Amino acid sequence: MAAPEKPIAIVTGAAQGIGLGIARALALASHRVMMGDVDRERLEQSARELQTDGGDVVAQPLDVTNPDEWASALAALDARWGRLDTLVNNAGISPRGTAETTDLALWDLTLAINLKGAWLGAKACLPWLKTSQGVILNIGSTRSTRPMPGLFSYVVSKAGLWGMTRQLAVEYLHAGVRCNMIAPGWVDTPNERLLQARHGRPDFPAGVANLTTPEQVGAAAVYLASPAARTISGVTLYLDSGLHVADDAGMVFFPDTRSLPFPQRIDEE
Ligand SMILES: NC(=O)c1ccc[n+]([C@@H]2O[C@H](COP(=O)([O-])OP(=O)(O)OC[C@H]3O[C@@H](n4cnc5c(N)ncnc54)[C@H](O)[C@@H]3O)[C@@H](O)[C@H]2O)c1
Q: From CA 12, how far away is CA 187, in angstroms rounded?
């Protein structure tokens, strides 16, 4: 019996953090992975590390907001592997700001990376995914469906991604392409530590009871990309220990901040 072809995946924002965790998990599960990111230096370094560990991965400079860069990425993928099974739309930013303190530039940037980027990725990859009966995985957040004060553009973008996930699942049901969202809660990544430190929590993730790891997000991606999940589409898989059903829109896992008056819990630049 001929060995099955190794599945091919693209992971965006794969230079570090959750995206790197997903790329690593997919590579360990015998996927070939194109790792895309705007941070070329870190991307090259991370790809080299995965290659050293035996991963069949390639680094691809990719700004998800730019359709031309998606076209270049797919051309490179075609030349190298000629196939695509899984797109992981992971690239994202989580800037602080309320509806009033968010300015036009910040709104445009957040929506461009977190939402438009995922659409452009789907648009570029769908012709390939229809051929392979593949899958799109969007990386949302607990905040896709449970808002938090001070994360205005982020929450709106991630809620949009939730809608896009369901819309793609419906539009491509008959084409055999699945689309699902993985929604982590707090994940300990280097950038999340920097962000939390900037907002007065230098000891993050200390005290966060429901921390999720990039490896756990990677494991969820491996499962949802696998044949075992071939009847799963349009769902959101929360990896947040139940935070999305908790009756508290605030930072319930930072007990020391719960007693503060409401406005002080709003993160602002
Ligand atoms: N860390 C958390 O607590 C957490 C929780 C829930 C959801 N998420 C989501 O997970 C995803 C990854 O988060 P993270 O914490 O690993 O972030 P991170 O900042 O560590 O990594 C994000 C990566 O995306 C890249 N990137 C930024 N703009 C890009 C663009 N235009 N095109 C391509 N790449 C771009 C960055 O260079 C970086 O390498 C994001 O979508 C984020 O919203 C994170």
A: 17
